[in-house]
Write a structure and sequence with these properties.
This protein is an alpha/beta fold. The protein contains 25 helices and 10 strands. It folds into 4 domains: about 100 residues, Rossmann fold (3-Layer(aba) Sandwich); about 160 residues, no CATH class; about 170 residues, no CATH class; about 170 residues, Mannitol-specific EII, Chain A (3-Layer(aba) Sandwich), CATH 3.40.930.10.
Length: about 650
């Protein structure tokens, strides 16, 4: 049996994208740190790679990045970090640091219940419990909604009234599909309620939740009643567990689980829901009527609201609020609202694909691949593919997504397009009343966001002097990495550069530019500018250049155009000037790191500097390319940092 340094569990409401994106991010972070990890995923098809008790017992720490219940009580006694699934995608390094810290919180059994009853910060916080239980309900409800909604929509192929025996459009098969779909859609509220209760109070909460959900459904409270009922069911069971504690578990465990909890729970929670039904039904009816009226009176405002909601968190709770409203209206026969929601959800991932097509140089190889894949994800109504792009520059990119989604939704509502199925994207295009128009509107919104994203990425790339969305050298080709290091000169000799990037090994050109006297391992500098000035002085001292001030000014000019700070404490300053006599390479390690604008916001302690004559035959591109290829390997960076003598560094570059 394998023993893992860390174990993890991931899950999201849909169980499609977030779940596996978080898994990938955690696995990549573990690989980067040289640690082993096993990730249990709670996807739409069930639990993949479930953790065994032995694996749990032998792990050092646990990371739970999930919006749904993953049975955290089994991790009792271990350091556990519990966060929403989005945190696992955006900042896995922070989660590793927290989980492996000496003061990492030790998870205690039944922490969920304690949080629910006392609001204690111990274990899960109350708000995290509320959030994860809601997402647990949504996660289990979505397949029910999709199955019922699509079957009902397909029945309309034979006509809107094909299920009515009195209509000339009546078709027996269509009527059967409509009935099956309708029964399935009716499960939406009970399933939502039951699994909210289950996340709070396990099996007893599930049973009471189903009962309360049926009361909410038949009382006309809609999904709002289902949500409230789920929390009532969970809270009532927690209360009963507290009140019945005097009865010893050994003798009364079976009686509690089979009789007392379900009977008393259904009675108490059902009674509360019964009382709340009338006022909640009024609220639900009023909300639905308001949304319906907005479709006709102000489709622009409605489209703006829906677009902003759907593109604000890409499958998160705000997005799901709009989606749940659409499914609730769909269950009532209103297919207009869902059309705008679907358009707003489809646009963001398509926009990322358009952005990487418009400005490929501003994106890394991995991001370009992700953008192309997002054409498929977006076409099938999976918004989550846009998350990595939103996370790169959230203050600018998320509003860009919102603008495109709002445009798509507004145009859809203005044209009164109907989408009678709650999911599927372009797969259910034949069910849409104006399919071509709907696709055109989505593409218009996607194109607007795509243009904005491409412009932002291009500006960021120019500002920083590197690929805007690149976060490390790993995964870049030689050409991409060399362009990241020196975008201002890398375009000059494309032919030479292309020939040098066909191999991942250097061709020995470092023999010509790197000598022992060009390597300094104990340079003291007050700040970045002081370090650059001393580099310029070193170039004059070693006979590479004749004017230190001129070289220094070229260093500064390059930094003004875009920082040459990379990550992991490395900067690649370079200068091209008439006072430089020959191409050369300097490798300098600082005794104290200095502040430098870098990708990971860490100070720089290692400078790899290139000095280039004003009239150069393009050979410098070989050096840049070879260095770029070396820096894509973590093993090289580790050896560079660990080298103690100039000879070791020369050997490392010339290997």
């Amino acid at each position: 049996m394998a023993i893992y340094d860390l174990i993890a569990a991931t899950g999201c409401a849909t169980g499609i994208a977030h779940t596996y994106m978080a898994e990938e991010a955690l696995e990549q972070e573990a690989k980067r740190r040289g640690l082993s990890i096993k990730v249990e995923t709670h996807g739409q098809t069930g639990v993949d790679d479930p953790l065994t008790q032995e694996e749990i017992d032998n792990a050092k720490a646990v990371i739970v990045a999930s919006d749904i219940d993953v049975d955290a009580d089994r991790f009792a006694g271990l350091p556990v970090v519990m966060v929403p699934v989005a945190a696992g995608i955006k900042d896995p390094g922070k989660l590793f640091d927290q989980a492996l810290a000496k003061d990492a919180p030790i998870y205690k059994a039944n922490a969920t219940k304690k949080a629910a009853t006392s609001g204690s910060a111990e274990g899960e916080s109350l708000w995290h419990l509320i959030y994860t239980s809601l997402m647990n309900g949504v996660s289990h409800m979505l397949p029910v909604v999709v199955a019922g909604g699509v079957l009902t929509a397909v029945s309309f192929f034979w006509g809107i009234y094909s299920a009515d025996p009195k209509s000339i459009q009546y078709n027996a098969f269509a009527a059967m599909l409509n009935t099956i779909g309708g029964y399935t859609m009716n499960l939406m509220v009970p399933v939502l309620t039951a699994y909210i209760g289950e996340a709070i109070a396990k099996r007893s909460g599930l049973i009471v939740g189903f009962a309360v959900g049926m009361i909410a459904l038949n009382g006309g409270t809609g999904f709002l009643g289902g949500i409230v009922g789920g929390y009532i069911a969970g809270a009532v069971i927690i209360l009963l567990q507290y009140l019945l504690r005097p009865l010893p578990d050994k003798e009364f465990r079976g009686l509690k689980a089979i009789f007392l909890y379900p009977v008393l729970g259904v009675f108490i929670a059902g009674s509360i829901m019964w009382v709340l039904t009338a006022p909640m039904a009024s609220i639900n009816t009023g909300m639905m009527s308001f949304l319906k009226s907005m479709q006709n009176s102000d489709p622009i405002l409605l489209g703006l609201i829906v677009g902003v909601m759907c593109a604000s968190d890409f499958g998160g709770p705000i997005n799901k609020a709009a989606y749940l409203t659409g499914t609730a209206l769909l269950a009532q026969g209103n297919a207009f609202f869902m059309a705008g929601v679907s358009a707003a959800c489809i646009a963001p991932p398509l926009a990322t694909g358009i952005a990487v097509l418009l400005n490929p140089k501003a994106y890394s190889k991995d991001d370009r691949s992700a953008g192309y894949v997002n054409f498929l994800l977006g076409s099938t109504h999976i918004t989550e593919g846009a998350i990595p792009f939103a996370a790169k520059n959230p203050l600018l990119n998320i509003p860009s997504f919102m603008i495109g989604s709002a445009i798509a939704a507004i145009l859809t509502y203005m044209s009164k397009i109907q989408v009678p199925a709650p999911h599927g994207g372009f797969i259910i295009i034949m069910l849409v009343n104006h399919p071509i128009l709907w696709i055109v509107y989505i593409l218009i919104g996607s194109a607007v966001s795509g243009v904005l994203l491409a412009l932002i990425a291009g500006h960021s790339a120019k500002k920083h002097g590197v690929t805007a969305s690149s976060v490390s050298f790993a995964g870049l080709t030689g050409e991409e990495a060399a362009t990241a290091i020196a975008p201002d000169i890398a375009h000059q000799t494309t032919k030479d550069y292309a020939s040098s990037s066909n191999s991942t090994e250097n061709d020995g050109t470092f023999d010509e530019i790197l000598t022992e006297k060009n390597i300094v391992l104990n340079l003291k500098a007050k700040d970045r500018n002081d370090a650059l000035y001393q580099l310029a002085e070193l170039s004059v001292k070693n006979g590479i250049a004749s004017d230190a001030e001129a070289v220094y000014q070229k260093y500064l000019k390059r930094e003004d155009e875009g920082s040459t700070g990379m990550e992991q404490g490395i900067a690649i300053p370079h200068a091209q000037d008439a006072t430089i006599h020959r191409s050369a390479m300097l490798v300098v390690r600082l005794t104290t790191p200095v502040d430098w604008k870098t990708f990971d916001s860490q100070p720089v302690d290692t400078m790899i500097s290139f000095l280039i004559p004003e009239h150069d035959n393009g050979d410098h591109l070989h050096y840049l390319s070879d260095t770029a290829k070396l820096l894509t390997h973590q093993s090289f960076i580790k050896q560079l940092k660990a080298a103690h003598t100039p000879l070791q560094i020369i050997t490392l570059f010339k290997a």
